[in-house]
Amino acid sequence: MGIEFKRSPQPTLGVEWEVALVDPETRDLAPRASEILDIVSKRHPDVHLEREFLQNTVELVTGICHTVPEAIADLDHSLSAVKEAADELGLNLWTSGSHPFSDFRENPVSEKGSYDEIIARTQYWGNQMLIWGIHVHVGISHEDRVWPIINALVTNYPHILAISASSPAWDGIDTGYASNRTMLYQQLPTAGLPYQFQSWGEWVSYMADQDKSGVINHTGSMHFDIRPASKWGTIEVRIADSTSNLRELSAVVALIHCLVVHYDRMIDRGETLPTLQPWHVSENKWRAARYGLDAEIIISRDTDEAMVQDELRRTIAQLHPLAAELGCSGELELVLEILERGGGYERQRREFERTGSWLAAVDLACSEMEQLRPLGGE
């Protein structure tokens, strides 16, 4: 089994943002994505939307972009078209890492062969996937660079998750986690942390095994938190919870874009890219999912530790010159705004504590989607 990696000469950018539909009265999820897709395709044929796993969700997909501002403008245009259709249908737009109280048993899966196969294979766990995320693609010039960069990126797993975490509640209860989505998604057999392959050849051999054993026949692909997207010549970073607004999303995308290019440049300079032991990476993932911006993370192979907020500030300062070159200085600086304001999971918890109801948390996320920015916590 050969895998051709469609090399990208430039570190181009593509973003996928999963957005759900909710009923304004019940605040529960509304399985009417097909109607949204039909309206938008007729009125705005330039807008790229994809049918998602659940019938309550549409995925906004950018074209091939060169800068973060270009990608965010693309998403803003698509969001306006989706909102126009949702308004006509009497629906609100909402997204976060997971819905705080909706019953997965009442949310139908979209009609698509691969989705049916996932459910048939994974049963209870597959049916529970009421979760939403952000996928960021960055172009890579050669397949030999893919796994060194992925192995370096997993050292930043808690940084990316902490600033995006927005799924504290599930089935009407506070889980105690900042990102319950992270804990849910890794239950699928092809999801979770990527193995730290040492070469492209190892990845090809692994995928041949998955094909031979029938795994790919069931799922269509491997759903690692970071994976090669060979068809596009990119690395796809799938760590982040879905943010409720474009402003925070732009911070997440800027951080990922800068990190990938930073590690790519390190290869150019002949420098050794950072890595952590797999058990350290796994522990960092759990700590960020559990504690979000308050996580203490492992930062070296010698098991040194630091607060993720301190590491984020250090990382932003380090990446600032590169961000200026890539045209995303303003968006990268928004990471610091998230640290000062608090994450989406914190805002949802505050609304629940204030009102005693998760309905208020859904309302808050809908308002943030409407106004394109986080609300509260100033």
TrEMBL record:
Classification via SUPFAM superfamilies: Glutamine synthetase/guanido kinase (SSF55931)
Reaction catalysis annotation: L-cysteine + L-glutamate + ATP = gamma-L-glutamyl-L-cysteine + ADP + phosphate + H(+)
This enzyme's EC code(s): 6.3.2.2
Gene Ontology MF terms in the entry: ATP binding; glutamate-cysteine ligase activity
The keyword Ligase belongs to this UniProt entry's keyword annotation: yes
First-level EC class: ligase
GO process annotations (BP): modified amino acid biosynthetic process
Function: ATP-dependent carboxylate-amine ligase which exhibits weak glutamate--cysteine ligase activity.
HAMAP family tied to this protein: Glu_cys_ligase_2
Annotated family: Belongs to the glutamate--cysteine ligase type 2 family. YbdK subfamily.
Protein known as: Putative glutamate--cysteine ligase 2
Natural source organism: Corynebacterium callunae DSM 20147
